[in-house]
Amino acid sequence: MERNHLQRRAAYMRETLFDQGYLDEQFIQLEDLQDDANPNFVEEVVKLFYTDSARFIRNIELALDNSTHHDFEKLDDIMHQFKGSSSSIGAEKVKRECTQFQEYCKAGNLEGCKRTFQQVKQENATLKRKLESYFQLKRQAS
Amino acid sequence: MNLCSSRAVNSLTVQRRPGDGVVHPFPAGLRVLVVDDDVICLTVLQRMLQKCLYEVTIHNRAEAALELLRKDKTGFDIVLSDVHMPDMDGFKLLECVGLEMDLPVIMMSADESKDVVMKGVTHGACDYLIKPIRIEALKNIWQHVVRKKKQNRKEIEFEQPGTEEDGEQQQNPVEDADYLSSPYEENRKNSNKRKDEKDEAEEMDDTSTLKKPRVVWSVELHQQFVNAVNQLDIDKAVPKKILELMNVPGLTRENVASHLQKYRLYLRRISGVSQQQNGFNSSFRGPPDVTFGSISSLNGLSLQALAASGQIPPQSLAAIQAAALGIVANKSAISVPLIDQRNVFGYENQKLRFGEGYQQLNNNRKQMKLLHGIPTNMEPKQLATLHQSAEAFGNMQVQSQSSESGSLMTQLAQPLSSNQILNEINGSHVSGLSSSFGQPTLSQPNPSGVLTRSEIDNVCGAVYSSVSHPSVTVDFSVNPCTQLPGNRFAPVSNSKMSTLVSKGILQEEAKSDTKGSRGFLSNYGVFSNLNQNRTPDWGLHNVGPAFEPTQHSNMNQQLNSLLADNTHCKAKKFPDMGFQNNLFPEQFDQEDLLSSILKEEGTGPVESEFSFDGYHLDNLPV
Predict the structure, then answer these.
(1) With contact defined as beta carbons under 8 Å apart, do B385 and B154 qualify?
(2) Which residues numbered 27-46 in A keep a CB inside 8 Å of some CB on B?
(3) Mind listing the pLDDT tens digit for each residue in B525-555?
(4) What proportion of chain B, given as a percentage, has pLDDT over 90?
(5) How far apart are CA B594 and CA B290, in angstroms?
(6) Average pLDDT for residues B193-221, to the nearest whole number?
């Protein structure tokens, strides 16, 4: 009973994540890869992502803080990689902010980059929080 | 999801692989190497590929992956590589793999901008996947392996011309009865793959072709023909006399007659193009290490261009053309030796087969000679193939008239290793003219964008004989008309196939052909299938089946229609297209296109950087 309830909650939460655009269909692709042999695949990949994203964010922060010279190409490059990772797990909002950031890089708009970067960090943190709750719920439900 | 595995099992015949006692349903067990600096992506891909029952190896460092490949060149069947990697550029890896191991390579990136995709094409990637990659896109990557093997087989066949004609018809071991497109003796063990192909695509409709002996105008044969014609003085050469001079058993007067007709048209076309700009005479010297491995579509150089430049004597031109044609036939890394005879003279058969107006066909073919395209999608290769087949005149034997073209040509004449070819091509003067068209491979099942390169059997650019050098504007306008759903860049679009066409030639024929070819070429994936299945004849009939019928029925139709065109979508329905307008408003377009491409490359006009299958189409910005 309790389990069913938890399961329902988890399902609802998942649905919300999709509805609100936090996740896209790539996440479903990940879920499809999960099976008995790889029961926690999605969670593992997401964890990997957050390790990686911390690194990306740090690198971008360093590059942006460089007051003397801003290498937009490098910024674009780092963000490109981050975008690739986030799209691999289906992090839609994060991906969108990354794309926006890249646009500003191409335009050489530093302020735009900084602003968007804040968005990137925010979306990234939000999704991380939500996914953590979701996985926790799922674990409890099973 | 179990779709991958279950489908794989259901759709494929269970084959026994030599060397192990286990029965594997192809393509299960395909050995895939994935290279990507993004660990998340690697992890996900690994899991996906495992789900497809492939044997996966992942590497996040390109250098290490390359070392691994070098240690065992046959250790993998296919490579998936990311474009942006810190330690090595993905395209560089692509080239190396193509050159050294001649494996099909699929590029991946979150970057879907056309330039990058085009770069993939020019460097010889057999496909380009946009991230995030879906498992559906991976399920069908095996087709690239099969396609490549097929191309290689043809290549080998080509090297044994004597057996060609008979071979095709008689070969086909029982197990491959349906898959007659090429002698498979040496590939018996790959019969499972072939069967799969057959099952999937029913491409080979060889049985029908077997009914009547088909002449495959191999390079040697064509050369003999050209020699005979020249001996007789081309104006007076009659089929009967040519036949006598050639003294080839089994060749009929009819064969010679039809071939002669085509040849004459070709020559006429060449001469008409002589005034064409010589702007692109620069040889395609592309980076010698350009490899293309998997892109079968490029048949490479537009021999025509070479011819146009007047550097190639008619004979060599023919040879080159043949070579080009052959090359187009799915060779990924080696364009030249890949001369697929069938393709070369495929048009001949096609013509017969489809009953299209000969003129039209010829026109189409001619037009196809040069692909001109915009390096936007990966069609150029396809176009090349198309052209080639259309042309089918070129001998594979390339006789180099000029040092540059000579090198190219001579190279073409011999079975060259892919590396050689690439280098040759680079160095040759196919510059500007190159219209190598890789055979477009249709990866039908690729939902993702990039079409499987269609194999352009006929290098459109077959340089026929250098009567005059039409300045060739190679314009790779590949249009990504993706027919294939998915995120891949699937230039399957009938509408736009940009064909590399020498300006001169195009001008004459630009009209519908280009359009036709455009569309045709755009089916990047489509062609590949076409070519593959093609039997000596340009495989038109095979084209259809090449693609997985289920998925690409429309493509098949397209292809078929295209094929009917002789590779250029003649059938396409460009009824009269006013190509002129689009194609060349005349010549300038192409030139501009080329120039812009070249500019990007920072090279002179027509630098053959675009190597597809080892052919440099010409400055395709890579």
Answers:
(1) no
(2) 29-30, 32-33, 38, 41, 44-45
(3) 444 444 444 444 433 344 334 334 444 444 4
(4) 12
(5) 19
(6) 53
Give the mutation candidate from B37, B47, B53, B133 for the A interface (greatest A CB count, under 10 A).
Answer: B47
Specify whether the CB–CB gap between B100 and B93 falls below 8 A.
Answer: no
- Contacts across the A-B interface (CB distance below 8 Å): 61
Q: What is the DSSP letter of B100?
A: I
What SS3 string covers B316-376? HHHHHHHHHHHHHCCCCCCCCCCCCHHHHCHHHHHHHHHCCCHHHHHHHHHHHHCCEECEC
Tens of pLDDT, residue by residue over B142-162, are 999 999 888 888 877 766 654
Place of tokens 């008995």: A36
Residue B53: predicted pLDDT? 92
Distance CA A110, CA A66 (A): 11
Question: What is d(CA B547, CA B555) in angstroms, rounded to the nearest whole number?
Answer: 7
Best A31, A32, A43, A49 member to test B by mutation, with max B CBs in 10 Å, is A32
Amino acid at B76: F
Residues forming a β-bridge with B473:
B501
* Dihedral class, residue B442 (left if φ above 0, else alpha if ψ from -120 to 50, else beta): beta
Structure tokens at B245: 């001079």
Asked if the Cβ–Cβ distance from A80 to B132 is below 8 Å, we say no
The answer to whether residue B48 neighbours chain A at the CB level (below 8 Å) is yes
Which residues are CB-contacts of B379 (< 8 A; sequence separation ≥ 6)?
B121, B297, B371, B373, B440, B454, B476, B477, B478, B479, B480, B491, B497, B498, B521, B522, B523, B524
